[in-house]
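Hi R.,

Here's the chain you asked about this morning:
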Amino acid sequence: MTPQVVLVHGIRTSATMWRAQLAHLEAAGVPATAVDLPGHGTRMDGDFTLHEALHTIDAAVRTAAEAGPVLLAGHSMGGLLSLAYVGGEDPPPVAALIAASCSALPRGPALAAYRLVAGAMNSLPDRGEWLAAQILAATIPEETRADFGAGGYALDAQDAALRSLAALDIARSVARIRIPLWFVNGQFDQLRTHEWLFRRLAPHAELIVVPRTTHLVTAMRPRVFNAVLELALAVVRERS
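And the predicted structure, written out as C-alpha cells:
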C-alpha cells in the first residue's frame, strides 16, 4: 500500500506553511494532507480547543489510513499535538512520526515567556505583523517566505492555544511512543530546551539537528526537511 502523509502546522500559521513539502510529495507521487487546526487558516473564525485540535488530527489520520500506512509530521505546536496524539493510551493508526521544532515541554517559565512575547506583539498597532515580516525576510528564502502567512495569522487563537498546551503531558506521551520517531530541530531553535529529556524518554528516536537554522526549519531549509520526509517514508515502506 502507498504511504500517506499528514502534516500539522504550528501556532499562528496554517496548512499553507507546508506548501514546499506538499509540492515535493506530489511530485514524488505520495498522497499528502495538510490540516488547518481550529482557529487557524480556513477555520480562523472558530475557537481553538485542545479537543478539537486532536480530533482534527485524528480525522485526517484515520481517513489517510484507509489508503495506506500513515506518516504524521507536525511542526512546533503541531508537533506537540502530534506527540500527544500518537503517545495516547490507545495508539492511533500512525506508522511513523516526525516531530519538528517541538523538543520542549509546554509549561513553566518557558511557556510564560512565550505568552508574554506573544502578548507584546499583539499589543503593537499592527499586532506585530510588520516585525514578523521583517524576521521572515531576514531568515526565510524567497521561495518559501510567503507560505507562513498565506493562510493568515491566527492572532486571536494564539493565547488560547498556548494555554491549552500546558494541559498536555508530553513527557508521558513521548515515553509511550514505539513507532519510528524523528525529532528535527534547527540549530538555533528556541524550542530545544528539553531535547535531552525527549531523547531519554524515546531512546529509539533519531535526532536530526539542522545547522544554521532557526525554529522555522521547514521553510528555512525546505530541501533538508523534504529529505527527512523521504527518509521516514523509506522506513514506512520497509516496515509495511
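Residues 16 and 147 are 5 Å apart (CA to CA).

Let me know if you need anything else.
M.
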